[in-house]
Design brief:
The protein is an alpha/beta fold and 563 residues long. It has helices at 2-12, 42-50, 54-67, 92-105, 135-153, 169-186, 216-227, 240-260, 272-276, 279-289, 325-337, 355-364, 401-408, 410-419, 430-435, 441-461, 478-487, 490-500, 504-523, 531-555, and strands at 27-28, 38-40, 75-81, 85-90, 119-123, 157-164, 192-197, 200-205, 267-270, 293-296, 299-302, 313-316, 342-348, 372-377, 380-384, 387-388, 426-429. A hairpin with a 3-residue loop joins strand 3 (75-81) and strand 4. The protein has a five-stranded parallel beta sheet, sandwiched between helices. A four-stranded antiparallel beta sheet has the order 1-2-4-3. A three-stranded antiparallel beta sheet has the order 10-11-12. It has 20 helices and 17 strands. It binds one RNA strand of 77 nucleotides through helix 2, strand 11, strand 12, strand 17 and helix 16.
Length: 563
RNA sequence: GCGCCCGUAGCUCAACCGGACAGAGCGGCGGACUUCUAAUCCGCAGGUUGCAGGUUCGAGUCCUGCCGGGCGUGCCA
């Protein structure tokens, strides 16, 4: 429709003096429905070139459009309003035609091919296996998964990837933590000490590392290890078996937790593989050959000042061990090598400082860094009993993603993380989420879906049939028209949300749809109406179900048929 | 100090890459269940969009400077 009107408008402007050759009119849906279905500000934009009042240009333009004339099967009215807007109102004929297309498309309604099959990689979660997934990981996971869904719905060939590192100091401390707990199980007489964990004192075996992981899951892992008596590790041996046991247990939990959230990764990329295939050192050599590196104080530095940073950055420590930046660069080079045209990284706000170095690294290596897009989301603040909960994986003070799902449910968890713009801090009041779960927005949407299913069931039980060939032109009630208009917006909303990577656009839109449906429900009955009208309304209700179902599907939220 | 994000109704947040009268939910107040699902609906109250300038026909949105909050700013990840 926008394209049609744009064509008409440009044609109407053909012999206008002073209009730029490349003038492209913009259209948008007015906030206020009284202003019509689509509006253009073309007259205001042209005012600059024509040196005339926008209002008078708009008047002349509208006259020319009406004189063409516009296709009455699409446009019902054209009027000039405000300071120079031209407002268009769609004809019912057009809406009904679009509604029919919606019904025919069914589960595919809202899909587009704008991605043209381009390969996209979305990397998210990417937690190291040192402890359970936290609420913070949850936001990252749900955001990434939904962005991936949005891209897939818009015709991208999407790969979902989880990047992790199971080597290094963190993992050694993890192993030592398990070993100390294990020792205490084997020998109950093990000397104890107390460790301060953010104000709380926790008892631990004397051999427990000072910066060890204090969570109870470490004890669980040690107990399970001990229960498997036949292959129980020797205390005198090295820490590796403890580390491995911990990693396996934690990773199994990752997958179980993500599955609960409806998340299924395509690939797990281990940082270690970049060492095994020498990619890390090859990357360093390439950077060095291009003159981006130098040695100082026994370390290898990356000349990031050449890219405008205040300081250069260490890639390899004087100990010979790379910092995380070098493998990160190698990893992203690998992503580029794998041929992805669109590379999206989902990062928490605490990682904002790291990615510029990666992008600089890619540029230095000759890759097109513009393919990489970093989506930063702000933190989640958990509030319990009116006070913010300080969270640290190492400390015992954190709420796991599983805890959250146990309390409020999987659907609510997903929806809450998606309700807000990624840029906004997310305040998650646990008590409120539990207590208010009955009035939760996600239930509102699911309820609308279940209610439609119920109505259609009931209508068929009492002998109404909503054939696909129903005469949809019988739909003319204001609530019916408003619902139709809301439903037909799904494709543009999904396309926009995908383009700006903002799932909350979909969540907000679905609420509008549910409201529009509820108003239709309040004004228009099906059972008891004349047969043809009932059939048409059943089709409209089906269309609403399709839109709600498809939208919830994109958000990864279940679509109950009864509640 | 510097970088990124944020500041909008009592609270939590929207506002479609500058548009018309800044919108929802929750909370508050007042109403509605012999009806296809009341997990619902209708109504009312609530705003100088942190402050001060600037650009523009037009600013919550863009620019500058302040104020306030979050996260970073490391030979940690």
């Amino acid at each position: 429709m926008k394209k049609y009107l744009a064509r008409e408008l440009v044609a109407a402007l053909e012999d206008f003096e002073g209009v730029p050759q490349d003038f492209a009119p913009e259209f948008e849906k007015p906030k206020n429905p009284e202003h019509g279905d689509l509006a253009t500000n073309a007259a205001m934009q042209l005012a600059r070139y024509l040196r005339r009042a926008p209002r008078s240009i708009a008047g002349e333009l509208a006259d020319r459009l009406l004189a063409r004339p516009l296709d009455p099967a699409r446009i019902a009215s054209v009027e000039v309003a405000g300071s120079g807007f031209i407002n268009f109102r769609f004809s019912t004929e057009y809406l009904v035609g679009e509604l029919r297309k919606l019904l025919e498309a069914g589960e595919a309604f809202g899909r587009s091919t704008t991605g043209q099959g381009k390969r996209a990689l979305v990397e998210y979660v990417s937690a190291n296996p040192t402890g359970p997934l936290t609420v913070g990981h949850g936001r990252n996971a749900v955001l990434g998964d939904t962005v991936a869904n949005l891209l897939a719905w818009n015709g991208y060939d999407v790969t979902r990837e989880f990047y992790f590192n199971d080597a290094g100091r963190q993992m050694r401390v993890l192993g030592e933590s398990v070993r100390a707990r294990y020792q205490a199980i084997v020998d109950p007489e093990t000397p104890r000490k107390r460790i301060d964990a953010g104000g709380v004192s926790i008892e631990a075996p004397a051999s427990f590392p000072e910066d060890g992981y204090l969570g109870a899951y470490i004890i669980d892992i040690a107990e399970r290890l001990h229960a498997r008596a036949e292959d129980a590790p020797d205390m005198a041996g090295d820490v590796a078996p403890f580390k491995e046991a911990a990693e396996q247990a934690i990773f199994a939990d990752f997958e179980r937790t993500l599955t609960r959230l409806g998340i299924r990764m395509d690939t797990y990329f281990n940082e270690r593989s970049l060492y095994e295939n020498d990619a890390v050192w090859r990357t360093l050599e390439q950077l060095r050959e291009q003159g981006h590196c130098y040695d100082r104080d026994g370390a290898v530095w990356f000349r990031t000042t050449a890219f405008g940073k205040e300081q250069d950055t260490v890639l390899v420590k004087s100990s010979g061990e790379p910092t995380y930046r070098l493998p990160d660069i190698a990893y992203h080079a690998d992503k580029c090598e794998r041929g992805f045209e669109r590379i999206v990284d989902i990062l928490g706000a605490d990682h904002i400082a790291t990615y510029p170095d990666v992008l600089h690294g890619l540029r230095a290596l000759g890759y097109d860094a513009d393919r990489v897009e970093v989506l930063v989301h702000q933190f989640v603040t958990l509030v319990r009993d009116g006070a913010p909960v300080k969270m640290s994986t190492r400390r015992a003070t954190y709420v796991t993603l599983d805890d959250l799902m146990d309390e409020v449910g999987e659907d609510v968890t997903r929806f809450f993380f998606l309700m807000r713009s990624p840029n906004a801090h997310l305040e998650f009041d646990l008590d409120l989420a539990k207590e208010a779960s009955e009035k939760n927005p996600v239930f509102y949407l699911q309820y609308a879906h279940a209610r439609i299913c119920s109505i259609l069931r009931k209508a068929e039980e009492v002998g109404f049939h909503g054939e696909l060939g129903a005469d949809l032109s019988l739909l003319g009630h204001a609530a019916e028209i408003a619902l139709m208009k809301a439903l037909l917006r799904l494709p543009e909303v999904l396309e926009y949300a995908a383009a700006v990577r903002e799932p909350h656009q979909v969540a907000n839109y679905l609420r509008e749809v549910a409201v529009a449906f509820t108003q239709f429900y309040g004004h228009c009955r099906i059972i008891g109406e004349e047969k043809d009208l009932a059939a048409a309304r059943m089709q409209l209700a089906r269309a609403a179900r399709i839109v709600l179902a498809n939208g919830l599907h994109v958000l990864g939220i279940s679509r109950p048929e009864r509640m």
